[in-house]
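Narrative of accomplishments. A recurring question from our advisory board has been how the design workflow behaves on a single, concrete structure rather than in aggregate. To address it, we present the structure tokens for one chain from the evaluation set, followed by the sequence designed for it. No filtering or post-editing was applied between the two.
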């Protein structure tokens, strides 16, 4: 009898009802972050409510298309892993500056298109840098990603940054209630229900929030039933040199962040990233960013929120996240449906976010358990990298006196920590050491016992 080749969990296609439930769970996990970028940029430019609504629906549409490209892929575009795509926060400050100093939205979209093309061209170069991401670096970066996201969950728990009742006890109580529901379902419910614990927690929290006045459905009534984003709705793009330079810096930052996210998902799904798949994933980022510039939205990157959800639920199918991309496309074409999802209160998302983002940090710690810390400087690499990654998270105004390009790089805890980890790993484990230290191998890696396995390429470790 012919034997069938076993299907990798990443390529498995769950039943339709599970696809819908798991996909909706991913949408709810990233929705607040996805709409935040157009809200912040549009608000800073004092756009009308109609234009703001248009930015949001355009963003959701391209989020969905970008996610489909990344998960399903075609030719050399897409990493074909469960990766959710969304607007990067690293671009917010430069875009606000470009939009409010005379360039307006056309200048933003011109710089975004150029940045997307640059990412596609640089993707193969970044792919060749994968050997500089051994478990020491990847574990540290994944840990920093989780820690950097926790303040986002904290703001949600308190009611959402800028809300009138920020920090009210009722908000925190609702978030803790959702957290308890998520943990209870994950611990005591049957296997399928435990995998949608976040969705159940958000649903129960939403149901409780309605009678207590946490929700506002006014936006649902005002939203249109159907809305279609047209290319260059706000005018033909303009290409200003200063705007392009600042967006190219953002492109480098988002490529670094995406690399960390792709490696993290590769760890969680047991389909580890190689140079070619990393290049394919970054190339998809670039294409999505170009589409963002054409369809009136912004640069795109892998969303770390959903990395935590993959680790927490242990649902590794890329078709689940592709389904989430399809849901986002629907939300982008049906504004009224998107308004319903937007009515979920921030504390409800916060309760679920605490579990998801904590899971990302815990996954980083699990990767670091494969690293040998005896008789070497690996502990210093982790310590300083985490410190540099947490600094801009704990003190957001730390670098406000520095040039804009420096702020763009270092205000992102993920990129700051990632760059620090790469540089320190090169310094302590790749360069020739001082007398009496571990001698370098011919390939430039530290030799001697367990350390050799730490700094070899990911494929050699496996």
């Amino acid at each position: 009898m012919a034997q069938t080749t076993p299907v990798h969990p990443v390529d498995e296609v769950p039943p339709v009802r599970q696809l819908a439930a798991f996909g909706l769970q991913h949408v709810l996990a990233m929705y607040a972050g996805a709409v935040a970028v157009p809200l912040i940029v549009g608000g800073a430019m004092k756009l009308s409510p109609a234009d703001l609504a248009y930015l949001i629906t355009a963003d959701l549409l391209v989020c969905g298309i970008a996610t489909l490209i990344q998960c399903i892929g075609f030719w050399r575009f897409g990493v074909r892993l469960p990766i959710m795509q969304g607007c990067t926060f690293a671009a917010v400050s430069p875009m606000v500056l470009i939009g409010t100093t005379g360039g307006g939205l056309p200048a933003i979209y011109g710089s975004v298109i150029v940045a997307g093309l640059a990412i596609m061209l640089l993707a193969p170069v970044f792919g060749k840098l994968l050997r500089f991401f051994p478990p020491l670096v990847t574990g540290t970066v994944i840990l920093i990603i989780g820690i950097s996201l926790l303040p986002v969950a904290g703001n949600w728990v308190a009611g959402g940054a800028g809300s009138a009742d920020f920090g009210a006890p009722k908000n925190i109580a609702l978030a803790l209630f959702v957290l308890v529901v998520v943990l209870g379902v994950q611990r005591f419910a049957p296997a399928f229900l435990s995998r949608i614990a976040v969705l159940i927690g958000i649903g129960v929290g939403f149901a409780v929030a309605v009678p207590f006045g946490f929700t506002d459905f006014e936006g649902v009534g005002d939203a249109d039933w159907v809305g279609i984003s047209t290319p260059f709705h706000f005018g033909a793009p303009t290409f200003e040199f200063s705007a392009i330079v600042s967006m190219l810096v953002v492109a480098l930052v988002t490529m670094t962040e995406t690399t960390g996210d792709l490696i993290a998902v590769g760890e969680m799904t047991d389909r580890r990233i190689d140079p070619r798949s990393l290049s394919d994933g970054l190339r998809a980022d670039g294409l999505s960013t170009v589409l963002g510039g054409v369809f009136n939205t912004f640069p795109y990157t892998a969303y770390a929120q959903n990395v935590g959800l993959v680790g927490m639920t242990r649902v590794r199918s890329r078709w689940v996240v592709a389904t989430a991309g399809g849901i986002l496309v629907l939300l982008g074409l049906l504004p009224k449906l998107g308004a319903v999802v937007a009515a979920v209160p921030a504390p409800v998302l916060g309760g679920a976010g605490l579990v998801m983002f904590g899971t990302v940090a815990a996954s980083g710690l699990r990767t670091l358990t494969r690293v040998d810390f005896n008789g070497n400087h690996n502990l210093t690499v982790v310590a300083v990298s985490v410190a540099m990654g947490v600094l801009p998270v704990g003190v957001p105004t730390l670098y406000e006196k520095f040039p804009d390009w420096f702020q763009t790089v270092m205000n992102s805890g993920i990129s700051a920590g990632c760059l620090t980890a790469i540089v320190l790993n090169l310094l302590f484990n790749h360069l020739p050491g001082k007398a009496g230290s571990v001698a370098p191998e011919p390939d430039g890696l530290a030799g001697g016992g367990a350390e050799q396995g730490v700094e070899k390429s990911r494929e050699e470790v496996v």
